[in-house]
């Protein structure tokens, strides 16, 4: 059993985008704030802070989760992936990211990181996900610029490319 | 929009969790997936001084079939139940309700028991539990007790859980042969709070049970005859009025009553069609 008192900061250890991270966080700190303010990983955005908008979505052990609805202390021992971990190599966008650029699936970009993390997890788990399933997963995100249609197009294009790559591999 | 300060206890066993809850009394809250509690903390609608995290307690991570019941431990995530392969055969009503719970991005972390503990009037899992006549297993450091869903839900976001006590598991009666079930919901978008949600069970003997969420402070259920019978329409209408629907931002009371009548009938008819 671990008791983290409210007065002090406490050590949290987890994997972040493939590397081991140790950070200090007060008991009440949210994972979003640990990522952004303590670790300086500002790709994860913060919108509503009550789980509605989806901007802060990250992957926890491969599943998309709201970083604003998790305490940093709950991330102990977890494997976390954020938008910083998506690129294939420095400067080389993943097929999903490239499809977003190609299909104008973003404008202001505020919601984009969260949507990328959700769709990346979906395409990994369900490579044959239907357009309906993709739309259902998008219902967990708010985008005020695109009207969603270009995002669905980008997701379908990325899916087609990933399937082709898998077939040729 | 940040939580007020609290002490955080990460329990490794049920005993540790119950001891920590006992010590802190009504100042403590259990945190599991946090998908309902953390928004309340962020908005400071809840200000517990101690949080007891139960997600690492192994014995609470199980889904078990026991004496005609499916028992789901307090640390089982909604997505884990959703992907549990016997679910559609053993609990078809829960299988059809789960995709309506929040979003994929919250079901990945939110627990089944956590949704019951939060007891939102429009939540799907409390509705399914009441429709099926399931039970909640509660425990403090000294004793266990089992409450039927009808006694567990006491009001809007209010349950029978006492200080020092926590939900250990929830038990859904498994699906009897020859029974049909159906679930329907009307919301502004998929994943939004239900304006009206209906769960129906059509039994082999021709009787039906309809439970409705999103209207009264807690989910409510009624026994109904066959939709072709004379009494069906009146009984359903009376039920719709009895729920005390109110006007709010999302829908008028009248629209909610209309939905109870139309969606209620449709859901019972679908349950009958599934009966085999």
Automatic annotation (TrEMBL), chain A:
What keywords is this UniProt entry annotated with? 2Fe-2S, Iron, Iron-sulfur, Metal-binding, Oxidoreductase
Decide whether keyword Metal-binding is in the record. Answer: yes
**Kinase found in the keyword field:** no
- CDD domains the UniProt entry points to: fer2
Q: Which PROSITE patterns match?
A: 2FE2S_FER_1, 2FE2S_FER_2
Q: What is the lineage of its organism?
A: Bacteria, Pseudomonadati, Pseudomonadota, Alphaproteobacteria, Hyphomicrobiales
Positions of the 2Fe-2S ferredoxin-type domain: 10-86
A Pfam family matched by this chain, by name? Answer: Fer2_2
Q: What is this protein called?
A: (2Fe-2S)-binding protein
Please name the source species. Answer: Jiella sonneratiae
TrEMBL record, chain B:
State one Pfam family annotation: CO_deh_flav_C
What is the name attached to this protein's record? Answer: FAD binding domain-containing protein
> What PROSITE patterns does the entry give?
FAD_PCMH
Q: Which Gene3D superfamilies match?
A: 3.30.465.10, CO dehydrogenase flavoprotein, C-terminal domain, Uridine Diphospho-n-acetylenolpyruvylglucosamine Reductase, domain 2
What range(s) does the FAD-binding PCMH-type domain occupy? 1-177
> Which InterPro entries did the record assign?
CO_DH_flav_C, CO_DH_flav_C_dom_sf, Diverse_Substr_Oxidored, FAD-bd_PCMH, FAD-bd_PCMH-like_sf, FAD-bd_PCMH_sub1, FAD-bd_PCMH_sub2, Mopterin_DH_FAD-bd
Alphabetically ordered keywords of this record: FAD, Flavoprotein, Oxidoreductase
Q: Which SUPFAM superfamilies match?
A: CO dehydrogenase flavoprotein C-terminal domain-like, FAD-binding/transporter-associated domain-like
């Amino acid at each position: 059993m671990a008791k983290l008192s409210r007065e002090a900061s406490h050590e949290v250890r987890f994997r972040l985008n493939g590397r081991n991270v140790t950070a200090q966080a007060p008991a009440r700190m949210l994972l979003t704030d640990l990522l952004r303010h303590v670790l300086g990983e500002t790709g994860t955005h913060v919108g509503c802070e009550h789980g509605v908008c989806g901007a802060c979505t990250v992957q926890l052990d491969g599943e998309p989760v709201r970083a604003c609805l998790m305490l940093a202390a709950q991330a102990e021992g977890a494997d976390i992936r954020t938008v910083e971990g998506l690129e294939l190599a420095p400067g080389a966008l993943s097929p999903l990211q490239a499809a977003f650029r190609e299909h104008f699936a973003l404008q202001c970009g505020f919601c984009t990181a969260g949507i990328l993390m959700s769709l990346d997890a979906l395409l990994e788990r369900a490579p044959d996900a239907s357009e309906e399933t993709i739309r259902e997963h998008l219902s967990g995100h708010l985008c005020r610029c695109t009207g969603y249609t270009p995002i669905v197009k980008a997701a379908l294009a990325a899916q087609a490319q990933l399937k082709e790559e898998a077939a040729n591999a | 929009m940040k939580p007020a300060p609290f002490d955080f206890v990460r329990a490794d066993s049920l005993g540790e969790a119950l001891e920590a809850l006992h010590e802190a009394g009504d100042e403590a809250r259990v945190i599991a997936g946090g998908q309902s509690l953390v928004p309340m903390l962020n908005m400071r609608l809840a200000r517990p001084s101690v949080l007891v995290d139960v997600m690492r307690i192994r014995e609470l991570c199980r889904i078990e079939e026991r004496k005609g019941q499916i028992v789901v431990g307090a640390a089982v995530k909604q997505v884990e139940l959703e992907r549990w392969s016997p679910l559609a055969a053993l609990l078809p009503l829960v299988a059809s309700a789960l995709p309506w719970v929040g979003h994929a991005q919250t079901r990945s972390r939110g627990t089944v028991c956590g949704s019951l503990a939060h007891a939102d009037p429009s939540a799907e899992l409390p509705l399914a539990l009441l429709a099926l006549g399931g039970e909640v297993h509660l425990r403090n450091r000294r004793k266990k007790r089992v409450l039927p869903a009808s006694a567990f839900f006491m009001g809007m976001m209010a349950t029978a859980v006492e200080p020092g006590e926590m939900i250990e598991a929830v038990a859904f009666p498994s699906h009897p042969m020859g029974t049909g079930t159906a679930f329907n919901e009307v919301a502004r978008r998929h994943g939004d709070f239900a304006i009206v949600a209906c769960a129906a069970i059509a039994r082999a003997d021709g009787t039906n049970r309809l439970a409705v969420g999103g209207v009264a402070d807690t989910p409510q259920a009624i026994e109904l005859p066959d939709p072709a019978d004379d009494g069906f329409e009146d009984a359903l209408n009376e039920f719709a009025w009895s729920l005390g629907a109110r006007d709010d931002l999302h829908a008028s009371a009248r629209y909610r009553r209309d939905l109870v009548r139309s969606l209620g009938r449709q859901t019972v008819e679908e349950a009958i069609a599934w009966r085999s």
